[in-house]
Design goal:
This protein has 190 residues and is α+β, with helices and mostly antiparallel strands. It has a domain at 29-140: Lipocalin (Beta Barrel). It is built from 4 helices and 9 strands; from the N terminus they run ααβββββββββαα. It has helices at 2-19, 29-32, 142-156, 177-186, and strands at 36-41, 45-52, 55-61, 69-72, 75-80, 83-89, 95-101, 106-111, 118-127. The chain has a 9-stranded antiparallel sheet. The N and C termini lie far apart (52 Å).
């Protein structure tokens, strides 16, 4: 009886170990720790990133987020060799969900939620090269971020934050042809 119980317990432990994921969510962070990355979204602006201590410091470089400096705690998963999925919550509704493909040197993102959902894409300029610029500046308060976004929206003509309190979601701006095509392709499928 004891031997049978031992055998059953050993089988259960073995099955449990085999069924666990070999690459659980968030496990890709170690592959990017210490990385400096610069990328730019078409018609949206660029970003300078530094991954350190399980956090991501970023600075906007052009576009609506020009000059904004923030610090987030992302989940990072390596979904394929040199392709990373990063995700973090944002103020207001939704979050940022970014796929960086270092093989093709492309970046794709799904931002926000509901009527403020955006699909954007662009190009990775560098990863850990002498051309990469690390984000500089102090992390901004929510009030400073909103003031900067409002000023940038006025300067660039891009859709910006509403006149509401700091942390309120971004106003919906005009959708790009890619946004419209993606919404039509997904209509009724979700």
């Amino acid at each position: 009886m004891t031997r049978k119980l031992f055998t059953v317990m050993a089988m259960l432990l073995l099955c449990t170990a085999v069924s666990q994921e070999s690459d659980p969510p968030g496990s890709g962070y170690a592959s990017m720790d210490g990385d400096v990355i610069n990328y730019e979204y078409y018609d949206f602006g660029g970003f300078q990133l530094l991954m350190s201590d399980h956090r991501l410091k970023w600075r906007g470089a052009g576009g609506l987020f020009d000059g904004v400096v923030a610090l987030v705690s992302p989940q990072v998963s390596e979904v394929a060799d040199n392709i990373f999925f990063m995700s973090w919550p944002t103020q207001g509704e939704g979050g940022d969900n970014v796929v960086v493909n270092f093989n093709a040197m492309t970046v794709n993102a799904h931002l926000g939620g509901g009527d403020r959902f955006r699909l954007i894409h662009g190009v990775v300029h560098c990863r850990n090269s002498s051309d990469c610029i690390a984000p500089e500046g102090d992390v901004m308060s929510p009030d400073e971020v909103m003031q900067t976004l409002r000023a940038n929206a006025q300067r660039t003509g891009l859709a910006g934050p509403p006149g509401g309190p700091p942390g309120a979601p971004m106003e919906a701006g005009p959708l790009s042809p890619a946004d419209l095509a993606a919404r039509e392709a997904l209509r009724g499928k979700l």
